[in-house]
Amino acid sequence: MAPRKLIELAMRDMITHGADEIVLETEYDNLASLTLYGSMGFIKDRRLYRFYLNGKDAYFDAIDNE
Ligand SMILES: CC(C)(COP(=O)(O)OP(=O)(O)OC[C@H]1O[C@@H](n2cnc3c(N)ncnc32)[C@H](O)[C@@H]1OP(=O)(O)O)[C@@H](O)C(=O)NCCC(=O)NCCS
Question: Ligand 1 centroid vs 24 CA: distance in angstroms?
């Protein structure tokens, strides 16, 4: 299944179960995932310094469903 489709299905399920916010996290320089998430309406919410064990920062991308 294409990643975009998988995320859409997961989002639909989360919304059905009452989620008011959906958050994805990825390495700050992961252009492919940041572009994919951005194209689906996610916005960069926070940058977490050295979030990963490899020392890289993370972006938390969020959609508010309210
Ligand atoms: C991120 C990832 C899952 C996208 O996979 P994919 O098979 O291209 O996903 P889909 O076909 O569902 O979506 C394609 C969209 O992803 C984005 N995208 C994919 N590759 C891209 C690239 N090299 N540069 C920029 N955007 C890219 C675009 O938004 C693209 O849409 P478009 O084709 O209309 O331009 C894939 O690159 C991957 O597996 N990366 C390694 C693992 C990873 O980073 N996982 C996410 C960790 S948070």
Answer: 14
**59 burial type by CB count under 10 A (0-12 exposed, 13-18 middle, 19+ buried):** buried
* 20-66 pLDDT per residue, tens: 999 999 999 999 999 999 999 999 999 999 999 999 999 999 999 87
Any idea what the Cα angle at residue 24 is, between residues 9 and 14, rounded to 5°?
35
Chain CA centroid to CA 32, Å = 12
Residue 16, amino acid: T
CA 66 to chain centroid, in Å, comes to: 17
- List all residues whose CB is within 6 A of at least one atom of ligand 1: 2-4, 26, 30-33, 35-36, 39
